[in-house]
Amino acid sequence: MGNGVKEGTVRLHEDAEPVLPSQALSPPLTACSCAFLQSDRREVLGSLLSGALAGALAKTAVAPLDRTKIIFQVSSKRFSAKAAFRLLYFTYLHEGLLSLWRGNSATMVRVVPYAAIQFSAHEEYKRILGRYYGFRGEALPPWPRLLAGALAGTTAASLTYPLDLVRARMAVTPKEMYSNIFHVFIRISREEGLKTLYHGFTPTVLGVIPYAGLSFFTYETLKSLHREYSGRPQPHPFERMVFGACAGIIGQSASYPLDVVRRRMQTAGVTGHPHASIARTLRAIVREEGAVRGLYKGLSMNWLKGPIAVGISFTTFDLTQILLRHLQS
Question: What's the distance, CA 128 to chain centroid?
């Protein structure tokens, strides 16, 4: 988007003759401004569509692993790779293959708007920060690059948090408890109150800031280094997947303890744990299971699914954006 605005502005200054102040709103300038607005609108819609598709593909690919991770996070069971795959196998035997994707409909209801907002917001924040720091149309320096990712993640999490809570509830409860997404909303509002829909929101935002910030920062930095050292303007799809995988590992490792706290708080009403603050939830996890074992439970599962999901999402977003620009031109 930065490139489009920059090129359009340069063209306007080159082609236009000097005008008096009273001519500042002349028809040619107004028409050009409308063209810019239409171009910006197309860019925003394109990034929303690309982000939605990226999130849907990534989360569907790792949904069984994600559900298994949540079950361990909200229980006091000791995590191991063997126990996780045993849980996957017994779930398949007793409930069928599709049960491994239980809660994925709620995940899609959350992930599609979340990813669309996050990727689109990231493009907008990059443009705004680029204008502010004087890097319009160029790669941002490190700190603004980190800030753009953190702001994008915070924006998306704030707007879609209740859907994340619903997804977590559906993942850890039997089919008989909640029949569908709307049933979860109705039961929570009746039995626990509407404010429960934002229970665990604070650790979510505190976790999203380093996660989204470091993920976008790592991915954008690796792409920038690739351009610098390879001489190619765009990396190949496989290279994008590798860059995204690195971004996922770094981002998720940095924010994982807060993810455990968030899941524990979100599912407190159905797992027997009392509703508590962040500090009390942290203390309870450390007291019952230990600092490392409790707060990093399931991290190895995240190291398996995280790189896959983040790699798919970043690659899908970039390739869809390239395709849309191709179609528009």
Answer: 20
Q: How many residues does the chain have?
A: 329
| Tokens coding 231 | 């001489």
Q: Is 170 exposed, middle or buried (0-12, 13-18, 19+ CB in 10 A)?
A: buried
pLDDT at 28 over 70: no
The dihedral sign for the CA sequence 255, 200, 156, 58: positive
Report the distance separating Cα 293 and Cα 79, nearest Å.
Answer: 8
* 283-289-290 Cα angle (round to 5): 70
How many angstroms separate the Cα of 285 from the Cα of each of 80, 135, 260? Answer: 17, 45, 9
- First-residue to last-residue Cα distance in the chain: 14
Chain position carrying tokens 């236009």:
16
At a CB cut-off of 8 Å and minimum separation 6, what does 103 contact? 63, 67, 167, 170, 171
Residue 32 burial by Cβ neighbours in a 10 Å radius (0-12, 13-18, 19+): middle
Q: Is the pTM of this model over 0.85?
A: no
Q: Which residue has the tokens 């704030």?
A: 158
Distance between CA 246 and CA 243 in Å, rounded? 5
Secondary-structure percent of the chain, ordered helix, strand, coil, rounded to 5: 80, 0, 20
Angstrom distances, CA of residue 278 to CA of 209, 246, 257, 265:
16, 29, 11, 8
Both tokens of 244, joined, read 């995204």
Apex 217 CA angle, 214 and 218, nearest 5: 80
Element (H, E) at 154: helix 142-172
- Amino acid identity of residue 38, one-letter, is Q
Phi, psi values for residue 98, rounded to 5°: -65, -20
**CA angle, 112 then 5 then 16, to 5°:** 155
pLDDT surpasses 80 at 37:
no
What is the band of 17 on the pLDDT scale with cuts at 50, 70, 90?
very low
